[in-house]
From TrEMBL:
Protein's UniProt keywords contain Iron: yes
PROSITE patterns: FE2OG_OXY
Organism, scientific name: Actinokineospora diospyrosa
Obligatory cofactor(s): Fe(2+)
Domain Fe2OG dioxygenase: 98-200
Highest taxon in the source lineage: Bacteria
Pfam families the UniProt entry points to: 2OG-FeII_Oxy_2 (PF13532)
The name this protein goes by in its record: Alkylated DNA repair protein (DNA oxidative demethylase)
Keyword annotations: Dioxygenase, Iron, Metal-binding, Oxidoreductase
This protein's record includes keyword Oxidoreductase: yes
Transmembrane annotation, as ranges: none
């Protein structure tokens, strides 16, 4: 199986999830989807992506155990931790990975995610990313600032990327979604990305 190193610590395994695993993950996302919200940012902006969290809720820019309306965050299922351990192991990282956060992002044809760093987790364990549905252009930058150098990589349905080591604090984002690129057999219009993280919190 191809294993592309985007940068030191950033490992891309195209088409890592087989068709059955993509369907199972999509079915789970559909169960979580009633909780999907456009996140409001402290600067007054609203994210174009719709998001639902498992385990811990990302209330920009910190993690909490309760949603903005006071209700409990959805549980992080054990099977998702198992999938995360298989993923980091396949990418060549230590198998002792214990993720306790999943962020599920839904992109319609117009959604984007600006360049940012993921630094709200106390632990620097790898971040695991799974993509489903339409292809997206993922921009992978540097650890210094939002500017160049960056590389643009297409992420397709079934792709796994693991970001650890030197890449864990790199700037990254989604510049566009390519509508209509998903396999019609999957039955998803748009794109889902599921990231797994270790909070480092109790
Ligand atoms: C590199 N999500 O949820 S996944 C995010 O496709 C996020 O929804 C994008 O960025 C998406 O924070 C990109 C790829 C990704 C995820 C986390 C990373 C790359 C990363 C953390 C550190 C470095
Ligand atoms: Fe991110």
């Amino acid at each position: 199986r191809p294993r592309r190193e985007l940068a030191p610590g950033a490992v891309h395994l195209p088409d890592w999830l087989d068709c059955t695993e993509q369907r199972r993950l999509l079915a789970a996302c559909r169960e979580w989807s009633p909780g999907m919200r456009h996140q409001r940012l402290p600067n007054g902006g609203v994210m174009s992506v719709r998001m639902v969290c498992l385990g811990w809720h990302w209330a920009p820019y910190r993690y909490t155990k309760v949603l903005d309306d006071g209700s409990a965050v959805l549980p992080f299922p054990n099977w998702l931790g198992d999938l995360g351990r298989r993923a980091v192991t396949a990418a060549g990282f230590a198998p002792d990975y214990r993720p306790d956060i999943a962020l599920v992002n839904f992109y319609d044809a117009d959604a984007k995610m600006g360049l940012h760093q993921d630094k709200d987790e106390r632990a620097l364990d790898p971040v695991v990313s799974f993509s489903l549905g339409d292809t997206a252009v993922f921009r992978f930058g540097n650890t210094e600032n939002r500017g160049r150098p960056w590389t643009d990589v297409e992420l397709r349905s079934g792709d796994l990327v693991v970001f650890g080591g030197e890449s864990r604090l790199a700037y990254h984002g989604i510049t566009k979604v390519l509508p209509g690129t998903a396999d019609p057999d999957l039955g998803l219009t748009g794109r889902l990305n599921i990231t797994l993280r270790a909070s480092g919190m109790d």
